[in-house]
Structure formats: structure tokens, C-alpha cells
Specification:
With 171 residues, this protein is an all-alpha fold. It has 5 helices and no strands.
Length: 171
């Protein structure tokens, strides 16, 4: 390991706006928009890029559905949306944790052996995964607490759904 401090503002995922120029220089020279045309991108690299895109898409959908729940006035429509929110939230958390586990335990060590120049970027990703694990744990708690079939009056039921949807958006 190098002298690496993840909590420095240029490294921490919640504080950095982009990768530092020094870090960018240590990465491969092929720009992302040209990856699909490169034969080396086919196979696993393309598959893992699609996994990342799927996780980002599911995350955006969960946020959109949660926002829709906050704006929904029709209780029967909310009753249809709630199970979809809970199901997608559970799948997202499960897939993201599994994906990070495979990267951390299999791919990152393999990449480091093959490409030692990726040590700092992989340390950065390892730190990102630790932060994301905390976020995913909080999201899992919010999803598990999201009431699909609340009880009480329409107002009480709506309040329970709004509280759950608001908690999901915070995560």
C-alpha cells in the first residue's frame, strides 16, 4: 500500500467532484466513449460496465418512484407503487453488495497483480465501496421499514407511506 489517505477531500467519494489529474494519468489512456469500439473491452469488461449502469439505473428509478410516492394523492395508486418500491430497493441493495464483494475479493486483487499502476485507483475504489456499504446498509434499513400495506385511516396510511418514501430519498 502507498501513503494513501482516503478521507482527504480529493479522494473521498462524498467530497471529490472528479478524479484528480494525477490519478487520471495513472489510468488507461483509452477514453470511456471509445471503450465499446476496442476489442479488449468485449467480454467481462463490457459485462461489468453494464452491471454498473444497471445499478445506477435502478438507483435513479428508486429515487424517482420514491419522489412519485411523495407526490401521490390517490391511495389506491400508492398501494400499487409501494410494493414496487420495496421490491426494487431490496434487489438494488442485494445486487450492489454482491457486486462490490466480487470486485473487492476477486477483481481488484487480480487487477492489482496484472496492473500495479492501478494501486491508487483501486485503493480509491476500495474506500468508495466502504462508504457505499454504509449507504447501502442505511438504504436496506429504509427499504425494510417501508410499509407496503400500512394500517389505520387513509391519513395514517398516507403518512406512513410518505415517511417511508422520504426516508428512501434521504438514503
Amino acid at each position: 500500500m502507498t501513503d494513501f489517505t482516503y478521507n482527504a477531500s480529493e479522494n473521498h467519494v462524498e467530497q471529490r467532484s472528479c478524479l484528480s489529474p494525477v490519478l487520471r494519468k495513472s489510468l488507461f489512456v483509452l477514453p470511456r466513449e471509445r471503450w465499446p469500439q476496442n476489442p479488449a473491452f468485449r467480454g467481462e469488461a463490457e459485462f461489468w460496465t453494464q452491471i454498473h449502469e444497471g445499478l445506477l439505473s435502478a438507483s435513479a428509478t428508486l429515487a424517482a418512484w420514491s419522489q412519485q410516492a411523495l407526490e401521490e394523492r390517490d391511495m389506491s395508486r400508492m398501494g400499487q407503487i409501494a410494493p414496487q418500491i420495496k421490491s426494487l430497493g431490496r434487489r438494488l441493495v442485494h445486487h450492489a453488495h454482491g457486486h462490490h464483494h466480487i470486485e473487492d475479493d476477486h477483481f481488484f486483487p487480480m487487477f492489482l497483480r496484472a496492473f500495479p499502476q492501478l494501486q491508487h485507483p483501486l485503493e480509491l475504489l476500495d474506500g468508495d465501496h466502504k462508504v457505499l456499504a454504509e449507504v447501502l446498509d442505511a438504504l436496506e434499513k429504509a427499504v425494510d421499514g417501508f410499509t407496503v400495506a400500512p394500517t389505520g385511516s387513509d391519513k395514517q396510511m398516507r403518512d406512513q407511506w410518505l415517511t417511508g418514501a422520504d426516508e428512501l430519498l434521504v438514503q
